[in-house]
Amino acid sequence: MALGSRCLFLLLLGILESLALGDPGPLEDVVIDRYYIPKICLREAQMGDFIRYHYNGTFKDGKKFDSSYDRGATVAGVVGVGRLITGMDRGLQGMCVNERRHLIVPPHLGYGSIGVAGLIPPDATLYFDVVMLDIWNKNDKLQITTLSKPERCNRTVENSDFVRYHYNGTLLDGTPFDSSYSKGSTYDTYVGTGWLIKGMDQGLLGMCAGEKRSIIVPPFLAYGEKGYGTVIPPQASLVFSVLLVDFHNPKDGVFLEHLEVPESCKRRAVTGDFVRYHYNGTLMDGTLFDSSYSRNQTYNTYIGKGYIIPGMDQGLQGVCVGEQRRVVIPPHLAYGEEGAGKYKIPGSAVLIFDVHIIDFHNPADPVEIETVFRPEGCNVTTRNRDFVRYHYNCSLLDGTRLFSSHDYEKPQEVTLGANKVIEGLNTGLLDMCAGERRVLIVPPHLGHGESGARGVPGSAVLRFEVELISMEEGVPEGYFFIWHGEPPANLYEQMDLNKDGGIPADEFSSFIKSQVEQGKGRLMPSSDPEKVIADMFRNQDRNQDGKITPDELKLKSDEDQEKIHEEL
């Protein structure tokens, strides 16, 4: 297109020269050759518009008489109001930004019969090569075009908000003058407080985080007649392509969005509670900076005690177990102007946490006991030292299944109060009847503590569903066997069945079993009575020679009395 226009211009010039040979009279009007017209022309220069342009001025023989390029500065002025030579005034009207024209200006539309002393002779025809760089009018307004906008936009920029945005800045002809992307960081500032040029102050209003805009700023809302250094000429319109990354107001508090709240919420977290939760942490533009899921481990902390950023301390107040909540935190309640390099959080960044509460407890919590079913006529209940058989299902509060006695052939068996199960479960099994069913909520300090156990996370609250199958009355701590009445006065003689002065293991076992069968005493309840009797024998066979002598045989009550005398 440019080459064809150039040929047309040369042809035109040739015709004019031929005409001059036959008719030496001057041209009637300026000759315009639009040898480059941009595909997109949003605006044409009209009478009264302010314009900026570059040009080269030559005579017919090609000799240059003037050039804006040589001066290193564009020409700015108003077109069509007599401030330019008439030929130029006419030749520049209707031009688009980035359009290029050849103009032939006859003398009577240039400097006439007088010329310009020392520069342009009288009656000179002038040739101009012009490129239009900028067009604006004093009645122009800010031109804002929304390029893209998030579907979700709960809030838009207002005056006094602090914004973080990326931008590319160009002149109207596309010449770049600045870019935040090249600096590797957003431009951060307050809106509507005079820290920006007026056009940007206005152009950012009403934007959503994540929105992209094109903002065309006329010079009187930008840098005006002075321009800015060497990069922005005087009277230059500016084009900004803006991506709003995030924004907040210094008066903002934490914003909460309840994504999912369980129907049953018996308790809500308060200051001093210890919370276990999963989270994804993102910036307002969606950039992920941290996630507990990626570590496959919950974040565990006290709330309201300053162990976490203030915004999260506030944002976790009142959560329910199982709740999913979005917490939006302004920078003054997060990592402030400095940001957090460890997490790649920029300074003054708004943070969004999508949180899932796994469980929480308070260090003062007892075991929570809910009786699901209790048989009628329940007169005998479990006590410490009793031997019990029970079924159980154990899970986390989020429903994660951990263990179940139903996975085995028989119920769980344990002597209560013998430190064989976690304290919370032991407490929850007390005062139960055979056939009773309960739900127990066991806080970690009565469970597996901060360290957890195999298959149990640290600081986890446990939920047990328990059913007591059977119970056997126990014996006091330290006893293997107790008498229901007074023990025989001649105990050793009755044990020594063959009267040989020594009691071997078989004689001891036979005697104990006979006492149990006759109802005179009972063994410590156990799933293995033989082992209990064997332990009793080893306890009495002081020198471990395989038999009990009269000196070795002692009742537990006698042993305890001897210890008291020794201490005294």
From TrEMBL:
Matching Pfam families: EF-hand_5 (PF13202), FKBP_C (PF00254)
Residue ranges annotated for the PPIase FKBP-type domain, each copy included: 48-136, 160-248, 272-361, 385-472
Record key words, sorted: Calcium, Endoplasmic reticulum, Glycoprotein, Isomerase, Metal-binding, Repeat, Rotamase, Signal
GO cellular component, one term: endoplasmic reticulum
MF GO annotations: calcium ion binding; peptidyl-prolyl cis-trans isomerase activity
EC class: isomerase
Region (Disordered): 537-568
Catalysed reactions, semicolon-separated: [protein]-peptidylproline (omega=180) = [protein]-peptidylproline (omega=0)
Protein name: peptidylprolyl isomerase
E.C. number(s) listed in UniProt: 5.2.1.8
Function: PPIases accelerate the folding of proteins during protein synthesis.
SUPFAM superfamilies: EF-hand, FKBP-like
Leader peptide range in chain numbering: 1-22
Protein origin, superkingdom: Eukaryota
Subcellular location: Endoplasmic reticulum
Domain EF-hand: 490-518, 528-563
PANTHER family: PEPTIDYL-PROLYL CIS-TRANS ISOMERASE FKBP10 (PTHR46046:SF3), PEPTIDYLPROLYL ISOMERASE (PTHR46046)
